[in-house]
Amino acid sequence: MRAATGIMAMLGSLLIAGVVHAETLTIGVAAPLSGPSALLGQQIVSGAALAARTTGAELNTVDDACTAEGGAAAARAFAEAKVQVVIGFLCTEAIEAALPILKGAGIPAVTVGVRTESLTDRRAKTGWQVFRLGPRGDDERNAAATILTRLWKDELFAIVDDGTIYGREMAETVRAAVEQAALKPVFMDTFRPEMDNQIALVGRLKKAGATHVFAGGDGADIAIMARDAGNLDAGIVFAGGEALRTAPGDVPFATGTLMIALPGWSETADKTVLDAFASANVIAEGYALPAYAAVEIANAASSAAQSAGKPVANALAGQDFATAIGTIRFDPKGDLSKNPYRAYRFDGQRFLPLEGQ
After folding, report:
1. For residue 85, which of 265, 306, 329, 322 has the smallest C-alpha distance?
2. pTM above the 0.85 mark?
3. For the chain, how long is the longest CA-to-CA vector?
4. Are 253 and 346 in contact (CB under 8 A)?
5. In a 3-state reduction of DSSP, which class is residue 165?
6. Where does residue 197 fall: left (phi above 0), alpha (psi -120 to 50 degrees), or beta otherwise?
7. How many Å separate Cα 180 from the centre of its chain?
8. C-alpha distances in angstroms, 38 versus 2, 30, 58?
9. Residue-level pLDDT at 249
10. How far is C-alpha 300 from the geometric centre of its chain's CA atoms?
11. pLDDT, mean over the chain
12. Which of 198, 248, 267, 270 sits a CA distance of 20 to 30 A from 207?
């Protein structure tokens, strides 16, 4: 009888230990909590903390200061604390210094803000266990190329840029894509930015017969082009990139202007989660919602890894994760499996998803 009682007690202890282990997933949070990026870092901490309350995860938060020294110090602290997953990181310098240390400790990292393309492109060479919960640096221009090639295949379109690295890269990627699709712009040129008017440019566009124009440049310049096109009765629809997210300045955006940009997470997030943010007096802006989603992903991956008896990094790859900002899946390199950029159209007051119009 005593033996049976002892066995039952031992099994009970093991069961309790298993439950405690499942409930005490420790997640490292790397965020800049000092310096000029501290406000963004606090968004990460706030979003992660709110998710941790829901999932039962324990957070180990370290200031990476957005520097290589801070990133390395944070990684060493996480390795010493034996966290299972690290989330956060907004700066390339910090995460690149941290990843070799995290790799040695067998700890995967989910960045919510680093866009540097080589971070995941070098995965096969470095062996870094890094996953990107956000866009790559080339996602914006690739999305512009893909979306506009589809939308304008039957239109007379032009491509212009402001001569900056950003503008040229955007325009060149769109040009290469339309060429690959056997399409040809009716006009291509570089314009001078920050001008009070773009009448000369619009005149050349009208003469070339362009009805649609992609402009690699700032939102203010695109707004001025559209205004001048309207004044010249040119009938041109202008499109640009994420720079259109900013206020246009003295000249408002023209109705019909197209923007290729990321979704506003607070506009598309799960309502229950948004209510939780509101109840906790946490503003669901910036990196708060992606950080919340990163904790959800870390929690789900940890559970899957325990069930399969595999490392957490293995569980992060190749499966769907239901999160507050939608279904997330990482490709073999650790990037998002789907480009997150979408097309939006200005309705006179705000940009709305194109597919909804």
Report:
1. 306
2. yes
3. 98
4. yes
5. helix
6. beta
7. 27
8. 60, 12, 22
9. 81
10. 20
11. 92
12. 248
Please list, in sequence order, all residues whose beta carbon lies within 8 angstroms of the beta carbon of residue 87, skipping any fewer than 6 positions away: 27, 28, 29, 30, 44, 48, 109, 110, 111, 112, 133, 291, 294, 295, 298
- Print burial letters for 7-17: b (CB count within 10 Å at least 16), e (below 16): eeeeeeeeeee
Per-residue pLDDT tens over the stretch 192-222: 999 999 999 999 999 999 999 999 999 999 9
Note the pLDDT tens digit of each residue in 236-292: 999 999 999 987 788 999 999 999 999 988 888 999 999 999 999 999 999 999 999
- Residue 230 C-alpha from the chain's centroid: 34
| Nearby residues of 342 by Cβ (< 8 Å), 6 or more positions away | 143, 260, 261, 262, 263, 353, 354, 355
Residue 234 backbone class (left: φ over 0; alpha: ψ -120 to 50; beta: rest):
alpha
- CA 51 → CA 21, 39, 289, distances in Å? 18, 19, 9
Residue listed under structure tokens 């082009």: 225
Kindly report, residue by residue over 130-161, the tens digit of the pLDDT. 999 999 999 999 999 999 999 999 999 999 99
Euclidean distance between the first and the last CA atom of the chain, given in angstroms as a whole number: 73
Which residues are CB-contacts of 300 (< 8 A; sequence separation ≥ 6)? 321, 322
Who contacts 192 (Cβ-Cβ below 8 Å, separation ≥6)? 162, 163
pLDDT at position 356, please?
A: 53
Tell me how far apart the alpha carbons of residues 164 and 239 are, in angstroms, rounded to a whole number. 17
Whole-angstrom Cα distance, residue 223 to residue 215? 11
Task: Output the pLDDT for position 14.
Answer: 36
